[in-house]
C-alpha cells in the first residue's frame, strides 16, 4: 500500500509540475505575443510617418514644377489667353484645394487631367494630331470615392507633350482614360521626336518619382509599364482601386 501511495504522490507531483510549467510557458508566450504586436504597431506608426514625409517631399516638388509649365504654355500663346486662363482657373482650384487631401475621387482627377490637356493644346500645331478619349463607367460606386492620389496622371501627360515633336504634322499624342471594374487606367502614347530632347529641369517630377509614389500608396495594386514600339513611346498606368479600397477598410 505504501508503494501505491508513493506512486500516486509521484504522479501527482509530476502532473502539478507539468501544469505549472505549462502555465509558465503560456504566460511567456502570451507576453511575447503582446510584445510582438506592440513592436509591429510601433513599426507601422514609424512606417506611416516615413511614407508621409516621402509623399510630402514628392508632392512639394510636383506642384510648383507643374504650375511653372502651365504658365509658360499660356505665356507663349497670348492669343488663346482667355480660354487658357479659364482652364487654368480649374487647374488652380484643384492644385490649391483638392491636393491637400491624401486622396481624391477618380472623377475629380480625370476632370483635372482633361483641363491640363486643354492648356497643353495651345503649344501644338493646328495640324498636330491629338486624340483624347474617355471610357468611363459612371455607375461604378467607387468613381466618386476618395481613393485616387491627386496629380497621379500628370507625369505621363506632361512627358508626352515634352517629348513629342509638337510642330510636325505627322506627329501625334494619344491619351485614353478608362474607369472600369473599379480600376483607373491611363494610356498615353506619342510619336518620338527626332529632335534631341531638351535637358530636363533639375529636381523635376520624373518617372522614378512617380513609381516610388505609387509603391508607397498602392503597394502591389498597380502596374506601370513604359515601352517603345517602332517609333512610338507608350506608357500605361493601371490602379486597382477595388483592392486598395478593401485594404483600407481592413486597416480601420
What are the SSEs and their pairings?
Elements: H1 2-75, H2 81-96, H3 106-120, E1 129-136, H4 154-163, E2 172-180, E3 183-191, H5 207-218, E4 222-229, E5 232-240, H6 241-251
Parallel strand pairs: 1-2
Antiparallel strand pairs: 2-3, 3-5, 4-5
3D architecture notes:
The protein has 252 residues and is of the alpha+beta class. Helix content is 55%, strand content 17%. The chain has helices at residues 2-75, 81-96, 106-120, 154-163, 207-218, 241-251; strands at residues 129-136, 172-180, 183-191, 222-229, 232-240. It has a five-stranded mixed β-sheet. Mean pLDDT is 78; it is low at 198-205.
Based on CA atoms alone, the radius of gyration comes out at 29 Å
Helix content: 40-55%
Number of alpha- plus pi-helical segments: 6
- Averaged pLDDT, please? 78
**Residue runs with pLDDT of under 50 for 5 or more positions:** 198-205
**Which word captures the global form?**
elongated
Amino acid at each position: 500500500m505504501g508503494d501505491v501511495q508513493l506512486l500516486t504522490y509521484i504522479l501527482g507531483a509530476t502532473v502539478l509540475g507539468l501544469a505549472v510549467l505549462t502555465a509558465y510557458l503560456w504566460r511567456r508566450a502570451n507576453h511575447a505575443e503582446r510584445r510582438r504586436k506592440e513592436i509591429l504597431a510601433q513599426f507601422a506608426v514609424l512606417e506611416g510617418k516615413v511614407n508621409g514625409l516621402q509623399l510630402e517631399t514628392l508632392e512639394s516638388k510636383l506642384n510648383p514644377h507643374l504650375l511653372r509649365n502651365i504658365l509658360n504654355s499660356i505665356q507663349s500663346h497670348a492669343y488663346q489667353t482667355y480660354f487658357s486662363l479659364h482652364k487654368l482657373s480649374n487647374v488652380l482650384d484643384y492644385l490649391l484645394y483638392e491636393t491637400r487631401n491624401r486622396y481624391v475621387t477618380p472623377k475629380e482627377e480625370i476632370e483635372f487631367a482633361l483641363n491640363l490637356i486643354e492648356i497643353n493644346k495651345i503649344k501644338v500645331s493646328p495640324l498636330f494630331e491629338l486624340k483624347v478619349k474617355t471610357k468611363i463607367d459612371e455607375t461604378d460606386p467607387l468613381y466618386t470615392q476618395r481613393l485616387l492620389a491627386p496629380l497621379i496622371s500628370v507625369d505621363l501627360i506632361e512627358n508626352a507633350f515634352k517629348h513629342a515633336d509638337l510642330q510636325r504634322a505627322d506627329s501625334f499624342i494619344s491619351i485614353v482614360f478608362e474607369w472600369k471594374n473599379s480600376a483607373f487606367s491611363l494610356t498615353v502614347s506619342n510619336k518620338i521626336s527626332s529632335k534631341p530632347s531638351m535637358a530636363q529641369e533639375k529636381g523635376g517630377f520624373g518617372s522614378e518619382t512617380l513609381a516610388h509614389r505609387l509603391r508607397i500608396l498602392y503597394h502591389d495594386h498597380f502596374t506601370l509599364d513604359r515601352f517603345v514600339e517602332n517609333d512610338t513611346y507608350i506608357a500605361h498606368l493601371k490602379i486597382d482601386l477595388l483592392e486598395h479600397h478593401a485594404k483600407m477598410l481592413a486597416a480601420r
